[in-house]
Amino acid sequence: xxxxxxxxxxxxxxxxxxxxxxxxxxxxxxxxxxxxxxxxxxxxxxxxxxxxxxxxxxxxxxxxxxxxxxxxxxxxxxxxxxxxxxxxxxxxxxxxxxxxxxxxxxxxxxxxxxxxxxxxxxxxxxxxxxxxxxxxxxxxxxxxxxxxxxxxxxxxxxxxxxxxxxxxxxxxxxxxxxxxxxxxxxxxxxxxxxxxxxxxxxxxxxxxxxxxxxxxxxxxxxxxxxxxxxxxxxxxxxxxxxxxxxxxxxxxxxxxxxxxxxxxxxx
Amino acid sequence: xxxxxxxxxxxxxxxxxxxxxxxxxxxxxxxxxxxxxxxxxxxxxxxxxxxxxxxxxxxxxxxxxxxxxxxxxxxxxxxxxxxxxxxxxxxxxxxxxxxxxxxxxxxxxxxxxxxxxxxxxxxxxxxxxxxxxxxxxxxxxxxxxxxxxxxxxxxxxxxxxxxxxxxxxxxxxxxxxxxxxxxxxxxxxxxxxxxxxxxxxxxxxxxxxxxxxxxxxxxxxxxxxxxxxxxxxxxxxxxxxxxxxxxxxxxxxxxxxxxxxxxxxxx
DNA sequence: TTTTAGATATCGCGA
DNA sequence: TCGCGATGTCTAAAA
Lengths: 267, 267
Description:
The structure is a homodimer. The first copy, chain A, contains 6 helices and 16 strands.
């Protein structure tokens, strides 16, 4: 591999913007090791394209034979190894307590460890086509519309959307294990437990609601109603709800923040 | 931005290995558009570092203001936009039915759509520091040890690991909603419902077991035991289990596939 | 296509 | 740190 020559003859090192810090093409193992050691603990993001083997041991154990992969190392210590398909990495480590690069048998080996849970990912770089160090800067402003938290806030403001005459007593009320999304009282003065789902509700949501309703019934006298509020529900879940004496109310997921309002700002 | 000159003077285009197809540093929007259009539908993996804005609309709606990001486009049509932290992308599209690159107001804009669910991700590239086209080849051999399926198979072979005298009648027995991991009979001839968890079991697992046990009790006469088999359990979950008359049995997660057996193959 | 259950889920919050 | 629940969860398998 005539990689040192390449790295020297065409180094894309001129960083016109502060973002691109350094980049090597087809480096030798030695050059790669020097590069990694210089950048690893420098709050930079590294991506590396090359042929690698990966070994993971922790909650489970996995091994991947040599293959073309894309590595991503972020300044928070997270590591991911991507293959040719899917959003999910082939191997990963969400957070590393210890990260190091060594030379073993002529190959650079990355070692990413974390405790709690005790896990280790070892990446052996057999060949490196390109490695780049970037400064990704701080997190940019990010807005998400349509989360369950926003749905909860909207319905807490206008509980009539669930049922006329409903008045909210609490949000995120802790009752034993877990929290009740909305705790309310209906027009007849009965207590109502409301479980929200931002998407289609499955039977797990019904069971969750059932647990909360039972917990409340053990603590307060009188009738306690349970309402599952979601934009949709699976057929089996609806049957389970009806059998358990729980109600389903269809509510729209998004309080319509229109594209027109977002579009001009961004594009 | 004198990017065209840079792309021409130091193009890391010489692909010493078949993996690296092409790479540009600080391309102009026009050069980037040409590059993307040439590579987008060519079964290659693209990664792009630059300043981008992202707009997502679908199950929810999100917008990210301009920031330094790393884009990853795989040949299966998946797209992900990474920020400086975490394994999870800031924005993504697991699968695209339509992918295109356009020039809008002097900026390259990527458009990734999918139907079912109807979702769209728009990425506006304000500045591109580096873009690379790679051939990641086929998926390499990958082995994972320690899945719940493997645990179930192991315990079905040797149910004595759960309790001496236990004999397995069924695996994945369907009973109403959901399936019983292991259905067995103990030394006294009582029916036993076993729920497995490969990691630490929470109270959800206990409730899941309780549902199955109740379903079985409605169908067969006599005593029905419920056993939660997992390598660990949370304290609240254990209390709930004891209160419900359900048992917890500690089982090791991995049937000992030793590092010694894996290590020599890989390293 | 719909539904379910698993995942090395990840991530963030609250006690 | 642990426990818990949401996630644009993703993903594969089964009905």
